[in-house]
Description:
alpha/beta; 2 domains; seven-stranded parallel beta sheet
Amino acid sequence: MTKxxxxxxxxxxxxxxxxxxxxxxxxxxxLTVDDDFLTQGGVESLAAVGLSQVRxxxxxxxxxxxxAVGYNDxxxxxxxxxxxxxxxxxxxxxxxxxxARVFTGHLLGEGCVVLPSAVIEPHAQIGANxxxxxxxxLAHHCSVAExxxxxxxxxxxxxxxxxxxSFVGVxxxxxxxxxxxxxxxxxxxxxxxxxxxxxxxxxxxxxxxFRYSSEDYVKYFGV
Length: 223
């Protein structure tokens, strides 16, 4: 059984702890965050230790780190903590949930996280410190670079690329051979059919209210 600490103490850490404590491969022994965030958040039954004290409390040779930080500031917060923990001597654990399906022959990036029902098809590549949420499909020969966040239900199609530090929202689709530039935000439900520039924002149009009430719609059009 591998002993791990979670880097983070907010909602992402709470979710990952729920998975890890039911995974017989791991024992979660604590949390670590920047000292300034010690009094914020928290995860049931786990003690949080500031980064300034983490080596003394959880020595690097006794445990590994699972990245459990959200996507704040285009994943820069996540990236910073990842790099500092590596510099302190920690091994960053690549966590693949047992219900994920990984078929690629490429090694997954150091410290990435792949959650239930994600499918990683042959020849797909994932960079270090990237989050692949539930029900994501990373299709054949696609690539997702380091420090990205791929939200639930997203499809990255064959030979598409998502460059570093990008956020791709729930149920978005990137079509074949398209490149999403670095530091992009792709909104929930967006369909990306052309290459995007770096630091771009691509949002789907919000659902617009229909002029009929729901009752009238059912009456005239059915469901």
